[in-house]
């Protein structure tokens, strides 16, 4: 399974010009996969636009799956922070409050992405989603990728490849497809 972070864009808007470039580069990298059975995407506009670019290159019609939607941030949506440290402090306060501002818990996010993975029976699938869901899935496979991991980078339109049969991580946040998946 390949999981792709959507291209750069705004929360409820489409891709930026940079995001379109990232999506085209990802499409070219993903074209090296021997076979892809299905292409799924988050309902977010920027994810659907990313999926359309990739789908055109791979000759696949993207299917929207609500389980791939970005993590719900509750009242934190749209908040502006002066620093990364300030945003982490607000996040930590939300978690410690028991998610009183309405943010989706890490456990529910993991449950949702596991639900998607379990619903997909094709051998090779590409899913266009968001960094928070990718991190949640990585955390299912390896506990070191937890809710507080701020060292793992999942850039826009990057490829994270997983082997779900072996429950292994092939690459995280790469601009290139692992050689093991190339034709």
Summarize the structure.
This protein has 183 residues and is an alpha/beta fold.
Characterise this structure.
This protein has 183 residues and is an alpha/beta fold. The protein has one domain: Phosphoglycerate mutase-like (Rossmann fold), CATH 3.40.50.1240. The protein is 36% helix and 15% strand. A six-stranded mixed β-sheet has the order 3-2-4-1-5-6, with helices on both faces. Helix 1 packs parallel to helix 2 and helix 4 packs across helix 5.
List the helices and strands in order.
Answer: EHEHEHHEHEE
Class in CATH?
Answer: Alpha Beta
Average pLDDT rating: 82
- What's the total number of strands? 6
Helix content: 25-40%
Task: Determine the CATH superfamily.
Answer: Phosphoglycerate mutase-like
Number of domains: 1
Helix segment count?
A: 5
Strand content: 5-15%
Class per helix and strand makeup: alpha/beta
| Rg over CA atoms | 16 Å
| Strand order, largest beta sheet | 3-2-4-1-5-6
Which geometry do the CA atoms define? globular
CATH architecture: 3-Layer(aba) Sandwich
Distance between the termini: 15 Å
Please name the CATH topology: Rossmann fold
List the helices and strands and how they pair.
Elements: E1 2-5, H1 17-30, E2 38-41, H2 45-58, E3 63-64, H3 84-96, H4 106-119, E4 125-129, H5 131-141, E5 159-163, E6 168-174
Parallel strand pairs: 1-4, 2-3, 2-4
Antiparallel strand pairs: 1-5, 5-6
